[in-house]
Amino acid sequence: RSQRQKTNPGGMRLNAFASEFCFMARILIVDDSPSDQKMAGAFLKKHLNADVSYAIDGIDALKKCEERPPELVLTDMQMPKMDGLELVAQVKEKHPIIPVVLMTAAGSEEIAVKAIAAGAASYVSKRRLAHDLCDTVARVLEISAEQRTQFRVLLRQIRWEVELVVENDIN
Description:
Distance between the termini: 48 Å
Radius of gyration: 18 Å
Strand order of the largest sheet: 4-3-5-6-7
Number of strands: 7
Strand content: 15-25%
Shape: elongated
Order of helices and strands: EEHEHEHEHEHEH
């Protein structure tokens, strides 16, 4: 893997591997503010070439996770019907392999700790979105891909062992 650094126009420094790795990653952005959705989506499309979709709240996001599971969920903290921490918990329960990154305008260390405790993979302040979002998402996607690969290998091993046991029981 190359460790070259690539600087994007927003001043973000991305590992060259990370920017290539995230090519066309499916990312679901959950925010009740259309302008915040579009801003985050524009960063991810431009700098990571992500395949971005949108949900207006946590309930809509859970429905979209069922229909077409994303590789990452990026969610706002404060939304009607279901806040970001509730969404993190629901995604972790129903789709444990999908990482969730929480973003909020009211950035604080306390919120970051609550987000991580709820199961979020990371946290980004909306005030630093232009600077931190793409690096954070690329890092989380890279770690998540490794975890998905390990999960698939484990599933194959379990299936192989089950097939072996069943085959041996027949004879």
